[in-house]
Amino acid sequence: MDVVTLGPDEIRAAVSMPAAIDAVRDAFLALHRGEFEMPTRTVLRDGGFLVMSAHHRPTASAMIKTLSLDFDRDPAIAGTVVWSELGHSRQLVADATEMTRIRTGAITGVATDLLAPPDAKTCTLIGAGGQAADQVRAVHAVRPLTELRIVSRGLERAEALGKALGAELDISAVVLADPDEAVRDVDIVCCATTSTTPLFSPESLAEHAHVNAIGAYRPTMREVPDDLLAEATVVIDEREAVLEESGEIIHALAARAITQDHLLELGTALAEGVVRSGGRTVFKSVGVAIQDWAIAGLLARTSAR
After folding, report:
1. How many helices and strands, by DSSP H and E, does the chain display?
2. Is 199 helix (H, G, I), strand (E, B) or coil?
3. Does residue 12 contact residue 290 with C-beta atoms inside 8 Å?
4. Which residue of 63, 148, 170, 204 has the fewest CB atoms within a 10 Å radius of its CB?
5. In terms of domains, do 52 and 187 share one?
6. Segment 19-43, tens digit of pLDDT
């Protein structure tokens, strides 16, 4: 058996953000067509360990990701992604930290391209952890930004991130302390935190704003408030996963701020379009295995050349 092992630098060199966005978009369209087997992920130790898997029937390919999460260490995510195909004995093993950053950014790019105003150019990022930079890279790939605002409890980390992204993407980046001030009048908001309470008030958002909420992945976590979900067009990554894991959605349903009919899966939205009136939009993701399958597939094809 031939095993190809890829570390963070090799993954980053092989996969551009535009390519990752395209691959993840295609994967969600394939999910909508019923091409995947994708069990709900296994969660151990209250989210300390996660196991995710996906099988794409048409290509007889599969991906399994195992990882641990500890937000008191850096990086918080550690693990491996394994890619296999029935027609080949070769296996690809890749670093899960870098894969997760890229695939989480990529799904934000897909959702932003679908839901944000076509002329959007300003973004607020709440959170400056390991997922943060690729959130901005993905947004910039589909809506070229001129201004970035960053809010984080770690001021030095936020300033370092702003300086790095400003230079990399050639955009203006500032750090603000107040989330409500930071989201005011911007086109796009990206939330990448482990918060257990909503990060900002809906009244602070522009009427046309699009919000990506990707940080909260457990029922005890929340980044966006019920009132925003109630009045916005809400797109989710996958219904079963969100109903089991998204604290925002679980809380809003329990409070009767929304019903399940309020939730539109990303694959359906991509295939059939989104009906909206120009108001606020929210994309809620807890992360699903086909995202990792999509990026692993890119790596497998690149390494086979």
Report:
1. 11, 15
2. coil
3. no
4. 170
5. no
6. 999 999 999 999 999 999 999 889 8
Q: Which helix (H) or strand (E) holds 297?
A: helix 289-303
Range of 141's domain?
117-287
* Whole-number Å distance between alpha carbons of 282 and 183: 14
CATH number of 299's domain: 3.30.1780.10
Long-range CB pairs of 171-175 (<8 Å, 24+ gap) are: 171/140, 171/145, 171/146, 171/147, 172/146, 172/147, 172/148, 173/147, 173/148, 173/149, 174/147, 174/148, 174/149, 174/150, 175/149, 175/150, 175/151
Measured CA to CA in angstroms, residue 73 lies from 70, 86, 130, 286 at distances of 6, 37, 11, 21
Length of the chain: 305
Residues 180 and 297 in one domain: no
Separation between Cα atoms, residue 304 and residue 55, nearest integer Å: 20
Task: Report the distance separating Cα 96 and Cα 78, nearest Å.
Answer: 6
Contacts of 58 (CB under 8 A, 6+ apart): 30, 35
